[in-house]
């Protein structure tokens, strides 16, 4: 009886500790976001640096090489996507009045004849308003920079986070093994075996999931870019990259990519015939991702229902912002491992009492 009461007390202490930790995370969310993002990157890149270290490359040099690679990757994505989307926005401004005319001459009469709904749009007024707005905005940069300049603290916070992430990432990745060893030493010896088993299982599930999910994102980005290029879409590269990189959110990558591709195709092609290959590309991509790529590279390593995934993304996004979305699935994976451990202990105790 005394042992059982002691175990219950230990669980209460662990629950209290978890509750206090969650409360502190909530209070410190704005500060922790860049640290969380840097920690996720360091966790993903640690095996790569370990392999460099095994090949007699100093760890600091391996960390710097990894940072250079990531910097080149992010800058390349930015230089590819931003100019193309600014060009697409300009093209939309130029061609939208023609679509307004088509709506006024074709769709509006059909709506009036079938449903008695009368809609009137002035194409010249729309064109004048859009042209004036775009010229006054002066492009994408001219719209973003003044909004940042309106709040000096917001701009300072953005710059601090932009500088803080690589600094934290460097120190975390360089001293990752040392910090893990220190944390291991801090664990009380009577809990060490149980905590080590939990940490090992979490690391296995989390590592396989993150690296598998990144592989899925990259593979689907390549597929969508090539498929849309074969379909003849001018903006196949940025739309394919967006659709591929957002596949970690269930259905979001496909829906957003399909919407952007349809809008771009409507501006490029004269009729629906040109849009059919675009729609086929996304249909094949969705089947490929759901039936082959994700089961092959990720499988059921987390075991979360899609509704649970969406809830986790929204909840962590509310707490930590954009970086919380990145943290949602890894944290859910660790939480699921903990729940499995509790369930195993409960089943073992029940079978023992039986």
Lay out the secondary structure.
Blueprint: H1 2-27, H2 29-54, H3 59-115, H4 123-137, H5 140-149, H6 152-174, H7 176-186, H8 189-230, H9 236-245, H10 252-268, H11 275-297, H12 306-320, H13 322-353
Helix pairs in contact: 2-3, 2-6, 2-13, 3-4, 3-6, 8-9, 8-11, 8-13, 9-10, 10-11, 12-13
Choose one word for the global shape: elongated
The topology string of helices and strands comes to HHHHHHHHHHHHH
Task: Write down how many β-strands occur, each being a DSSP E stretch of 2 or more residues.
Answer: 0
Number of helices: 13
Estimated radius of gyration: 26 Å
Unreliable sequence segments: 136-151
State the end-to-end CA separation: 17 Å
How much helix is in the residues? over 70%
- Summarize the biggest pleated sheet: none
Structural class: mainly alpha
Average pLDDT: 75
Protein name: Putative PurR-regulated permease PerM
Pfam families: AI-2E_transport
InterPro entries: AI-2E-like
GO biological process, one term: transmembrane transport
């Amino acid at each position: 009886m005394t042992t059982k009461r002691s175990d219950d007390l230990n669980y209460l202490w662990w629950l209290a500790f978890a509750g206090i930790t969650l409360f502190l995370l909530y209070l410190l969310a704005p500060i922790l976001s860049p640290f969380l993002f840097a920690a996720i990157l360091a966790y993903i890149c640690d095996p790569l640096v370990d392999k460099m270290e095994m090949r007699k490359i100093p760890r600091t040099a391996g960390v710097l090489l990894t940072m250079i690679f990531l910097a080149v990757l992010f800058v390349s994505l930015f230089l590819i996507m931003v100019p193309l989307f600014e060009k697409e926005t300009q093209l939309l401004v130029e061609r939208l009045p023609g679509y307004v005319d088509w709506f006024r001459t074709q769709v509006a009469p059909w709506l009036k004849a079938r449903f008695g709904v009368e809609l009137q749009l002035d194409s010249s007024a729309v064109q004048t308003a859009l042209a004036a707005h775009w010229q006054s905005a002066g492009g994408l940069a001219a719209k973003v920079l003044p909004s940042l300049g309106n709040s000096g603290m917001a701009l300072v916070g953005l710059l601090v986070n932009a500088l803080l992430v690589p600094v934290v990432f460097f120190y975390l990745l360089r001293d990752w093994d040392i910090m893990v060893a220190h944390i291991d030493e801090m664990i009380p010896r009577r809990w060490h075996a149980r905590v080590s088993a939990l940490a090992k299982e979490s690391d296995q599930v989390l590592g396989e999931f993150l690296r598998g999910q990144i592989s899925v994102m990259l593979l689907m980005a390549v597929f969508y870019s090539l498929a849309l290029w074969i379909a003849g879409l001018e903006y196949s590269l940025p739309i394919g990259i967006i659709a591929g990189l957002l596949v970690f959110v269930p259905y979001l990558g496909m829906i957003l990519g399909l919407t952007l591709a349809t809008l771009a195709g409507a501006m490029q092609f004269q009729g629906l015939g040109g849009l059919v290959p675009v729609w086929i590309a996304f249909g094949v991509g969705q089947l490929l991702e759901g039936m082959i790529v994700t089961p092959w590279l990720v499988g059921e390593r987390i075991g979360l229902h899609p509704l649970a995934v969406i809830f986790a993304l929204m909840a962590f996004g509310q707490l930590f912002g954009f970086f919380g979305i990145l943290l949602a699935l890894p944290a859910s994976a660790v939480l699921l491992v903990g729940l499995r451990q509790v369930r195993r202990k409960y089943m073992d105790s029940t079978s023992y009492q039986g």
